[in-house]
Specification:
The complex is a heterodimer of chains A (about 650) and B (about 280). Chain A contains 18 helices and 23 strands. Chain A is an alpha+beta fold and about 650 residues long. Chain A is rod-shaped, with a radius of gyration of 69 Å. The relative contact order of chain A is 0.06. Chain B folds into two domains: about 160 residues, Periplasmic binding protein-like II (D-Maltodextrin-Binding Protein, domain 2, 3-Layer(aba) Sandwich); about 90 residues, D-Maltodextrin-Binding Protein, domain 2. Chain B is about 35% helix and about 20% strand. Classes of the chains: A alpha+beta (about 650), B alpha/beta (about 280). Chains A and B meet through helix 3 of A and helix 2 and helix 6 of B.
């Protein structure tokens, strides 16, 4: 059992893990697709905003170079001494500050003129800070003033990092320097939010493009981001965007959760755009990382977008439902499989046990058969109607080869019971008794005696012992008690028979007459007493002696017994007096019987003496007549027959 | 000797425990430049105090000087960066203020000068009223010193001319550079930064007691004030020289009596006078 439980648990765990893995992977793929779509969308908006500023910068540049006064001042600056340069710088500021004010409305943060040597000429946002060389620090300025090409893109700077648009200033072939328009991330963020109002954006910059690039005194305006020590953000004291981000608890939690996702650091270090899906407070969010390259086409940071995306939650729920449904189905299948397997194993085991049991049962049966066969008794197994087994003694007794041979001749052993008053036979099965076994069981044990003839035709008496083999089968043991029975019968005979003639004696009569009388009544018969004696028997004794007389008595008794019916009883009443107790339907039948017997004797020729006759007195009665009455009346009629001349019947 | 040692340890323990800042303290910088630049200027000092005293300093930026003084009186501000005039005005209204640290100028002294500055190519008008760019009404180099300098150097009475308050020294100078004003009043140090733009300083005041960090004795304990003072004075030159222009000349102990010399005898109009 434990093995099955362990196997089930292990299979369930492995199966569930595989399903979970599959659905997790499928779900992740779908969510990744959502992330990719959002990344593309954000990228498109981001590109649109950057491009719009580029167009605006181009317009501002065109405005500058088409201003002859400004171009003239710039040319003068190139060739002026330091004192005059200060004055020209002031004049340039005075000339163009209104243009800068207009630019500021369009989110331009820096309007910066550079000398042809790449030094700061005039920062309109901090006009009193100038003269520092930017050529080495800023690739864009170096390219604009050496290669004389316009450059745009994200770049660090002395004051702050931003989106730069730099154009070389050339007047009639004279390279006068360059002009830069910078847009702060705040502007980009504000415009992106107009496209994606449900999103928040943050700029995180590499240390190289931010902290390492600005003036030392401005480094305090930058601080490490929450994402990584390698990325900086503008201090929230000065940056509106970062102030809002810092005070937004949802973004703070999203940041912590996104950072905690597996492989986040590695993804951040790939410098490619990616998305991190988050489910927080039952809401789906996507944290988007749009990689930003600087003007050297090197990684400069990420624009991080925080956007609510209900699809993530929906997809996760969808796959969770799939997972639970599939896992449940799997568990049920495994449970069923394990139950079937267990049942199969159990049935196999049961089969083996059954086989073993059958073998042992068969062996037991064989042993039992051997044992039964060893019995001298006849032993059979039967349900009362059919029998399924008989021992060797059975076949020896009846002279059959096997049970089949017996069954071809007989349906039941009970058919072979000899009908006799002293033995049980089928005729004694009473109404309401299912079969002979039940009938035998209803008898007292001492009366369970049957008689059967052996193969040689000799009668045998058997004491029957019945025991339950199982619920329906009986084990019937026929113990041969023939010898004991003979002795019994002999004893019985001594007690109830006349020793000379073999007829019943008075002892038998008085012991049995009531029973016989009752039996006749039950069968609707009259009990008839046929009282008779031998006429002139004294003369026989006197003439021929007692031996002849005894012989006459014996022959007479045998003659009459032979003609008696089954239930007729010949009784020697005393001397030459006999009576026959017979059940008849009427007095007339009794008279006819008496007449028949008289005629039989009259017709018989006895040895030595020859002819002999008998006189009969007949009395019949029913329940209203006592035995004594019948005897007396029969005796009276015998007297009448004697008186009437003998050899006749009076009734 | 042993008894003295025990007393010394107990005193220092008491000082250390009393100097604990159980709540963030508020600091109001003077709006001499733009808000960003004014805040930025003090960030290094705030970082130092946080690291050194484990105290969080919250910047309580107030653009008009008057609001800083009101915040002090309302005990919403614990520390402020003030010039001599705002300090004297505050002390007059609210005696629970004490200057603790003076901020040195480029010459190593905390004292500074107010100046008048104009664009080199511009000439002061004679055919119309002068247009004067001022910082704030309560700024030392605002109306208070500008009217003196104009009177002393040009014999011009400011109260009869046109003037406007532009909220910071930088704004006053930039607006003059733009040509919107004829002349500006500012501190010498800030005005000098505009020399690279063709601005020139045309008048200097006498040296004035310097800008100071003042403490609110109603909100800070003497031990806390002392701890702040000692912490700032302990800053090494190699550290503060890397900081911005406001801080990179270092610090000195403020002399409270120096500011008694500021005469509050001028009626300062709270609003500009422009056509």
């Amino acid at each position: 059992m434990i093995r099955y439980i362990v196997a089930f648990i292990v299979s369930a765990l492995i199966g569930t893990a595989l399903i979970a893995l599959y659905f997790h992977s499928a779900c992740a793929q779908k969510i990744d697709a959502i992330g990719e779509r959002l990344l593309l969308k954000t990228h498109a908006f981001y590109d649109a905003v950057i491009s719009t500023h580029k167009i605006a910068a181009q317009k501002d540049y065109n405005h500058l170079i088409s201003n002859p006064e400004a171009m003239c001042l710039l040319q003068s600056f190139k060739y002026a001494d330091k004192e005059d340069q200060a004055l020209i710088r002031g004049e340039l500021f005075r000339l163009m500050y209104r243009q800068y004010d207009e630019m500021k409305v369009l989110h331009v943060r820096q309007f910066h003129l550079h000398t042809h040597k790449g030094e700061s000429l005039l920062r309109f946002h901090i006009p009193y800070e100038s003269g520092d060389c930017l050529m080495e620090l800023r690739t864009s300025i170096r390219k604009a003033n050496t290669e004389l090409i316009s450059v745009s893109g994200f770049e660090g700077g002395r004051i702050f990092p931003g989106y730069r648009y730099i154009f070389p200033i050339i007047k009639e072939g004279d390279h006068l320097g360059s002009v830069e328009f910078s847009v702060a991330f705040e502007a980009i963020e504000a415009e992106l939010k107009s496209f994606m109002p449900q999103s928040d954006f943050q700029l995180i910059m590499t240390k190289e493009s931010s902290f390492d690039a600005v003036f030392t005194r401005h480094q305090r305006l930058l601080s490490p981001s929450l994402w990584s020590e390698a990325y900086y953000v503008e201090a929230s004291d000065l940056s509106r965007v970062n102030r809002e981000i810092k005070s937004n608890s949802t973004i703070s939690r999203l940041t912590a959760l996104a950072k905690a996702t597996p492989g986040f650091e590695k993804r951040l270090q790939r410098h490619e755009r990616f998305a991190v899906p988050i489910v927080m407070d039952e809401e789906g969010y996507m944290v988007l990382f749009e990689a930003i390259n600087n003007t050297d086409n090197e990684h400069a940071g990420y624009m991080v977008g925080f956007t609510q995306e209900p699809m993530i939650r929906a997809v996760k729920r969808e796959y969770q439902s799939y997972f639970f449904a599939t896992a449940t189905a799997l568990l049920l299948m495994l449970l069923m499989a394990s139950m079937i397997l267990r049942q199969y194993r159990r049935s196999q085991r049961d089969q083996k046990s059954l086989e073993a049991l059958n073998v042992s049962l068969h062996q037991a049966n064989e042993r039992l058969e051997r044992f039964i066969n060893l019995q001298r008794s006849i032993v059979i197994l039967t349900d009362g109607k059919r029998f399924s087994f008989a021992n060797r003694s059975f076949y020896d007794f009846f002279g059959y080869e096997n049970l089949q041979a017996f069954l071809e001749q007989h349906a039941c052993i009970c058919e072979l019971f000899v009908e006799h008053e002293s033995f049980f036979s089928l005729s004694k099965v009473k109404e309401g008794e299912a079969h002979w076994i039940e009938s035998l069981l209803n008898l007292p044990a001492r009366q369970r005696i049957v008689s059967m003839h052996d193969a040689q035709g000799h009668p045998h008496a058997f004491a029957v012992d019945i025991s339950h083999y199982d619920e329906t089968i009986y084990l019937v043991d026929f113990a041969d008690i023939s010898e004991t029975m003979v002795e019994k019968l002999q004893l019985e005979s001594l007690a109830t028979r006349d020793q000379l003639t073999g007829a019943f004696n008075r002892t038998f009569f008085y012991a049995s007459i009531e029973t016989i009388h009752n039996l006749h009544q039950q069968n609707g018969l009259l009990t008839c007493i046929l009282f008779f004696d031998i006429d002139h028997f004294k003369a026989v004794n006197d003439t021929h002696g007692h031996l002849v007389g005894d012989n006459v008595l014996q022959v007479l008794a045998a003659l009459l017994s032979a003609k008696n019916r089954k239930n007729d009883y010949l009784i020697r009443w005393g001397g030459e007096e006999f009576l026959i107790v017979s059940g008849t339907v009427s007095m007339q039948s009794g008279i006819q019987k008496a007449e028949h017997l008289r005629a039989l004797v009259d017709a018989h020729s006895f040895e030595i003496i020859g002819h002999l006759t008998c006189s009969f007195g007949v009395a019949c009665g029913d329940a209203y007549h006592t035995t004594e009455t019948l005897i007396q009346r029969a005796d009276e009629k015998l007297y009448e027959a004697k008186a009437a001349g003998r050899n006749r019947v009076c009734a | 000797m042993r008894a003295w040692l025990i007393l010394f340890i107990l005193f220092n323990s008491a000082l250390a425990s009393g100097a604990e800042f159980e709540r963030p303290i508020t600091f109001a910088p003077l709006p001499m430049k733009s808000k960003e630049r004014s805040i930025e200027a003090f960030l290094p000092l705030i970082d130092h105090l946080r690291e050194h005293l484990d105290v969080t300093v919250i910047i309580h930026y107030k653009s008009p000087y008057g609001e800083i003084l009101e915040g002090f009186e309302a005990q919403q501000i614990d520390l402020a960066y003030l010039g001599p005039l705002p300090l004297s005005l505050l002390k007059k209204r609210y005696p629970h203020v004490v200057p603790i640290i003076a901020f040195n100028q480029h010459n190593g002294s905390s004292r500074y000068r107010c100046v008048l500055s104009k664009f080199k190519k511009d000439r002061l008008p004679t055919d119309r009223p002068l247009k004067v760019a001022l910082t704030q009404p309560l700024s030392t180099c605002g109306y208070y010193m500008t009217q003196r300098l104009l009177q002393e150097h040009y014999g011009i009475a400011l109260e009869t001319e046109h003037f406007d308050y532009l909220m910071s020294h930088t704004n006053a100078l930039i607006e003059t550079l733009k040509g919107n004003f004829d002349i500006a009043g500012a501190t010498e140090e800030i005005a000098e930064q505009f020399h690279s733009l063709g601005m020139e300083t045309v008048a200097y005041s006498d040296a004035l007691p310097g800008f100071v960090l003042v403490a609110n004795t109603q909100t800070l304990s003497p031990v806390q004030i002392e701890a702040l003072k000692q912490s700032i004075l302990s800053i090494k030159p190699e550290q503060y020289t890397t900081w911005g222009e406001t801080l990179h000349h270092g610090f000195s102990k403020a002399d409270p009596h120096e500011y008694d010399a500021i005469e509050l005898d001028v009626q300062i109009p709270m609003k500009g006078r422009m056509p």
